[in-house]
Amino acid sequence: MIAKKDRTAIFIKDLPQNVFAGFVVSLIALPLGLGLALASEAPPISGIIPAVVGGVIVAVLGGSYVTITGPGNGLVIVLLGAITTLGGGDLYQGYLFTLAAVVFSGLLMILLGFLRMGRLADFFPASAIQGMLAAIGIGILAKQFHIMIGHNNEPGNILNLLMQIPYGLYSLWETDSLSVLFAAIIGFLSLFIMVFYSKIRNRYFQLIPAPMWILILTISFSYFCSWFKITYPLDEKFLIPIPNDVLSSLVFPNFEKVLQMDFIIAVFSITLIASIESLLSIKAVDKLDPANRHSNVNKDLKALGLATTISGLLGGLNVVTVIARSSVNVNTGATNRSANFFHAFFLVAFVLIFQEQLRKIPLSALAAILVYTGYKLATPSAMKKIAQIGKEQIIIFMGTIIATLVTNLITGIVVGILITFIIHILINKSFLLFITHLGKPNILMFREPDGGNYFISIKHFCSFLNYYKLKDKLDLISENEEVILDFSMCSFVDHTVLEGLENYREIFDLKGGHIELVGLDKHETNSVHPFAIRKIIPLQALKPIERYFTRRQEDLKETAKDFGWNYIPKKKKKTRFLRNFVFFKSKNIRYSYNQLEDQDRKKGVFDLEFTEGEFIAKEVVKTTLMYVSLKNNVPLFTLDKEGLLGVLYNLSGFEDIDIPGHTDFNKRFHLSGENQDAVSKLFTDEIVLFLESNPYYHIESNGSALLILKKERLLSVKEIKRMIYFGKQLQKLLQSSQNGQ
Amino acid sequence: MLMDSLNRPFNTILFGFAFSPSLEANIMETTRIAYFLNAKLILLHVGTKTDKKLAKIEALLQKIEYPENQPEIHWVEGKPVPTILKACNKFAIDLLVLGALQHENMFQFYVGTIARDLTRKVNCSVLLLIKPSAIRVPCQHVVVNGFDDPNTPVAITKAFQVANALGAQQITVVEEITQKEVHVTVEDDRSLKRASLRKEKLKRREESRVRDIIKSLPESLVSSIKVKIQSIFGKRGYSIGHYAEVVRADLLVMNAPEKSGLIDRIFPHDIEYILSDLPTDVLIVRRNQ
Fold first, then answer.
1. Comparing C-alpha atoms, which of A568, A573, A632, A640 is closest to residue A597?
2. What's the domain range around A520?
C-alpha cells in the first residue's frame, strides 16, 4: 500500500497530464454529445448534461480509473425509440417522459450495483452482443445518413431509412434548395475528414481530434461568410438549435406515465443497454490501462446510476462509460479519474463561452460524425472477424442484427441468446447435456501441493450459460499466480468462454501471472480460430487431432522450435517402446499425441492416453511424459516421492534402496531397483544434489531409457519446458556418471 | 477389545442382491470387502426363493476368493425399500452395500431410485459401488471429507480404518473453503488482496483443525498410510466428488447429511450431487447406529 502522503504527491505530479487528457477528450465529447442528443431527437444540450454530471460524479465516486463517462452511442436507438413511442407523435413531450425513464433507469443501475450485478454482461453470448452493437451502429448510420445529406426529417423505421439511402442520394441531383445541397456538401466533407483523419501523419494536425476539426472548420466558414458579407447558405433549421441562455433553460422530467407499460419497458431497455455498454467499456478500458488496475465495476455501476438519475432530473440523457472517448483519454496520458472531471469542466466552459459559435454548427456536420461512429460499430471487418471464428457465429450475429432491426433491442438480444442456445444443442446433438448439468457446480479449484499453482477443472460443459461460475473462481486468484485450466472432463466449450478466458490470459500476462488451458487439444472444431467452439461427443470416433489447433498446440510448436526439436501433433498408436517400463505394466496405452522430439529421436515429450488395466476399464488417464533414451545401459530403477506405486514395483522384484550418506534424500525420495549396488553407484553425489534441488519428478529407467513423469494430468506448456530442461540435465548427469564408472 | 474395534470399522454388512448380469461381480466384490473389513456379510434377496435361484447363488458362493468367510443368505418377499430398511434394523446392520448404475453411452455413474431412496432413509453407513469386479482391484487412494461438521471426525476415523483394511497407501483429507466463508467479494485489486489473505487464513485454520482430528487417531491407524491435506474451492459436497475424480481416487468417504427432505432434492446440496454423478466408489458414514 502506498502511503497517503505519497499518493497526494503522485496525484499532484500527474495533474497536468490529466488536465491535458481531459481537455483533448472534451474536444471529442462536445460534438459527440450534441450529435448523440440530436440523433435521439432530444435537445442538443441534453447530450452535454450527462457528460458534465457523469464527469463530476463518477470521477468522485466511481470504481474505475481512466474511463470517460457521458452519453453513449448504444443508447441512441433505445432513447429514440422511447422518445417517439412515449411522446405519441409529440417529440418534446416524449423527451420529457423519457427523462423520467432515464431517472428510473439510474435508480435501477444503482440497485444493480448494490446487487453486485457487475457481471451482467457475462451472461450474454459474445456474438449476440456483437450483433446487438452492430445493429445499433446500423441504426445510427441509417438515420444520420439522411441528415448528413440535408434531409432533416426523413420518416420511417431503420430498415426503411436504409432502403431510402440510394433514393436520398439521387434526389440531391434534383433538389432546387441551395441549403440542402450545401448541407450535403458539408456533410460529405465532414465524413471525408472523419475517414481520412487517421491517415494524415502530422503531429500538429493530430493534436486536435477529427470531430473538433469539423466544428472548427464549419464555424470558421460561417465567420468567413459574415466577414465577406456573403449570405450564409444554411438557414436556421440546418443548424444546431441551442437555447439563448443554457443555464436558465434546463427542463425537468415528466413523471405522468410512470405506471404505464411502455414506460416500464423503456426503463428496462435503457437500463439493460446502458449497463451492458458501460460494463463492456470498463472491461475494455481496464485492458488499456497502462497501470494494469482492476476496476471495481459494481462501484462504478452505482456511480453511473447516481449520475444518470441526476442527469435525468436536469434534463440530460443517460450517463454511461464510453469506450472511444476513454481510449483517447488513455492515449493522451490520463492516469486517474480526475481526467474525467476535467473533461466535464472543459465541456461546461466551452458551452458557456462559445454559445454563440456553437449555434453556427451545421446539423449535417454532426450527422457525418455520427455516420462514422455508426459505421465503426458495424464495420465489415468486425463481421469478418466473427465469421472466422465459425459459421455458427455468423448465424448468431446476423440473427441478432436482423431481430434487433425489425423489432427492438430487447427482443433482438433475446433472439440472439435463443439462437446461440439452439445452435449449442444442435452441435452437441444433446439437450440433456445442458439441462442436466446446468444447475451443477461444475468448477473445482485447488492449489496444487507442489509447485503452488492453481488448478481448475471444468466438468460437463462450459458456455455463456454457466461461464459466470468459472469467472467467480478465476476472480479469486490474484493475477500474478499461475493457473492451469483443465478442460479434459468438459465436453463442450463455447466461443464466449474462450474469448473471456483470453481476456483473463492477457490480464494475467500483464501482471506477471500465467493462465494456460489444457485438455482441449482433442476437442473437435470446425474452424482454426482460437476462440472457436470446441466439443467432444461421447463414443464418437476421434478424428485426427492436428486439425483442431489450440493455443496449447501453437505454443508447443513454438517450444519445439526453441529447442530445435520437431513437433508432430498426430496421434500415434506405436507405443511399444513404453511397454517395458514397470509403470505401464498393468496399464493399457491407447495412443500418444502432441509429440515433441529432438532431431535424432532420442528424447521426446508427448501427451499420452492410457487406462488402468485391460479388463478393468477405469476412466481414461491423460498425462504428459518425457522419454529419454540413454547411450549406455543403466540399471533398472524407479524414483518416486510418494511411495505410492511401491506395491507395483515390489511386485516386479524391486527393492527399496538407500543411498549411503544422504539421509535427507533417502527420507524424501523412494528409490527402488533390482540391483542395489549398481543403482547406488549410479546415483553420484552430483545427481543426488541435482534431484534434491529440483522440483519433484517421477523417474523410471527400463535399462536403456528414462521415463519422466510430473503429474497424472496433462501439463501446461510452461511445465513442459521445465520438464524438458530437467530431462536434458538429468541425461547429461547420468551419462557423465556412467562415463566416470 | 479396543484393537478389535479399531480393525473393524463395521461389524455386519448387508447386500441386497438381484439376479442381474452383474450378480457374479457383485457377490465377488462384497464377499471380498467383508473379508477385508473382517465383518459378517448378510446377502438379502427381495423376492421369492426358487430352487433355480438358490442353485445359482450357491454355485457362485463356491467360487468366492475367501471361502472361510461364508455369508448368510436371507430371502424376503415385499417391496424392496421397506424390506431392506427393515432388514437393516433386524440384523443390526452397520454397512449397507449398494450398486450404482451407469449412464447409457457415457462413462458416468449414478445412483438409481431405489438405492437413492435407501441411501437417504437407512440408519447405517452406505457403500455405493460403481464397478464391482470379479477380480480384485487394489484400493490405493482414499479421499475423505474434512468439513467443519460434527460428523467429520467419525468419517475420518472410518476412512482410516477402511483404508488400512483395504491396504490403501494414501488418504487425502479434503476440506472445502466456500465463497461464503471468505466473506470478501472480489471487486478490485484491494478486495482481491483481502480475499487472498482471508483465504490463506481460512486454509491454515481448516488445516490445523483437520490435523487435530488426525492427531487424535491411534498411531496404528495413521502410521502405515501417507496422509495429505488439501483445501479446495468449490461447492460443498459436490466439488469433493469432482476432486476425487480429478485425482482418480478409488474410494470417497463422506459424512451423511443431517437430514434430506424434499427441499434438498429440489435444491440439491451436499450428498445429493454426488449421488447424481458418482465419481468413484463412495462410502457414506452415518454415526449413532
1. A568
2. 436-540
Cβ pair B273:A457 closer than 8 A: no
Query: What is this structure's pTM?
Result: 0.76
Q: What is the distance in angstroms between the Cα of B89 and the nearest Cα belonging to chain A?
A: 35
From CA A42, how far away is CA A229, in angstroms rounded? Answer: 33
Q: Decide if B182 touches A, using CB distance below 8 A.
A: yes
Sign, CA torsion B105/B109/B115/B117: negative
Count Cα neighbours of B172 within 13 Å in the Cβ-side half-sphere: 25
- A635 near A661, Cβ under 8 Å? no
Which of B105, B185, B232 is nearest residue A116 as measured by Cβ atoms?
B185
Residues A514 and A585 in one domain: no
Q: Is the interface score ipTM higher than 0.90?
A: no
Q: How far apart are CA A610 and CA A617, in angstroms?
A: 10
Domain shared by A571 and A503, yes or no = no
The answer to whether the CB atoms of A613 and B238 lie below 8 A apart is no
B59–A contact, CB cutoff 8 A: no
Question: Is B179's CB within 8 Å of A646's CB?
Answer: no
pLDDT of B1: 33
HSE of A18, CA atoms in CB hemisphere, 13 A: 22
Which one-letter DSSP state was computed for residue B70?
P
Q: Measured between beta carbons, which residues in chain B are less than 8 angstroms from residue A646?
A: 169
- What total number of domains does chain A contain? 3
Same domain, A373 and A244: yes
* Min Cα–Cα distance to chain A from B111, Å: 15
Query: What CATH code is assigned to B1-135?
Result: 3.40.50.620
A614 pLDDT exceeds 70?
no
Residue B169: CB atoms within 10 A of its CB come to 19
The domain defined by B138-254+266-280 folds into Rossmann fold (3.40.50)
